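Quick one, T. Sequence first:
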Amino acid sequence: MMTPATARAPLDGSHYQVVVIGGGINGVAIARQCAASGRRTLLVEQNDFASGTTSRSTRIIHGGLRYLEHGEIGLVRESLRERATLLRERPHLVHPMHFLLALDEKSRRSALTVRTGLWLYRRFGGSTLAANSAAMDQKRLERILDSGRRWSVFSYEDAQCEFPERLVAEWAVEASQAGATVRNHTQVLAIDVMHGRAKGVLLRDLLNARDERVEATWIINASGPWVDRLCQRSSIRTRPLVRGVRGSHFVIPHFPGAPSSAVYAEAADGRPFFVIPWNEQILVGTTEVPDTGDPTSVQPTAEEIDYLLRSVKKLFPQARISAQDIVYSFAGIRPLAAGKTPALGAISRKHLIHDHADEGAQQLLSVVGGKLTTAAELARECARKIGASPRRKPSLALGAGDSLDPLLDRWVVEIAGAGSISETSARGIVEWHGKRSLDIARMTLSSADLRAPLCSHTEHIVAEAVDAVANEYAATLGDILLRRVPVAWGACWSAACSRQAASRIGLVLNWSDEQKAAEIESFEAERAAMLLCPKRASLSLETAAD
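Structure tokens:
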């Protein structure tokens, strides 16, 4: 099999109608839309797709219930409309989920205000989940909340995308299928501006260690937290566009009495936070802290983890959760729009498309803000800005409009039979790969090595990793195990799992011993930097509980 580096044709001297910088959810959505609209498009990402802010989110697809408090009704309606589209078009990745809003007697939000907001939310977004199930979840939660306080518990519906990395991978493939050139591990050194117009970009292909210059009619800077840095590096004199806000999370195992629904509650300072079932674990987050540091090296602070830990302990005191229970923590930078609003929670989450024409850089747009839910709408707006006709061209993963459960069950049986694999492995493939599942299953017939599990703790198989390299632009072990087949987010993942996965993947991809060792070393460094384990945190974490 060709490696990603050898398969990449040189770009030097080429011309594109649109160059999109940044391979997070927004950048990939924009490239997909521009290509579908008939524009010759290049998408470049300095690291791997979805390796930045997208992979450090709370992983919910929501309308933004709290945005109603700030009067952003238009944003809420747009978000709920996009949520419905994702539920319909990506049922294997985006699932409806019950949320329970738990407020105690000290909350500044009155019951009447909350009921009014939830009534509007349901009116705008509708419902697909059974009401009796929500009622059962609500009663279960009321029994396990801190009995020393008086609680009001309300139910509503939103959605979860456990792995937005998989959504980005699918959209990147669809961008390519629509005609886009797609490149990860390709850094934009500078935007080339001449005579008041952005003319192209200077690139560095990090896989091949070569510099290339590409011309462009339009350039869209969707690099998230790096937007201002790229403008500064390119000598584009613009006001600060991004206000970096760090959001930190931690993951703990399921605890006795852990809710089966997501819980939306208030921390000690009144800020909202979530306790969400995720990846067979519990995800707790998030914080809001100003951060002007390097987005590449962002990590949660001990104070943030202590804040979240105290908040969840206060909510569930009987669970006796401590710092020792934390599997890992992680943080990301939200690239919110810079402005005069002092309160971080009051900054609008609506995206901003900034035109640099008045700053001596015509044909250059910078994208700021946005969220997972509204990336597709942002992409359509960008297409309109450059004069393209945005097209709604849904790529149906399993069959839009059908109920997912019976459809999923039928697919699992078919995939298991097509690949002579277990139904558990088949289910995992369908849930993460959607319409590509059959191709992956058929691939396994050629070799028993492809049917082998990636490690002894998972039913996900080597064929998924090989498909990631062959068809989804994975170039490193980290690309595979953290973003295409993201088993390394599991609670039981260890260095032994990394070695086992690298050995089994490397056997099929013909890695030499030297390459395998280098991949393991690089992957372990990337995972350790991204997912902070308790033993690496401050000692204060160890004593924060009880």
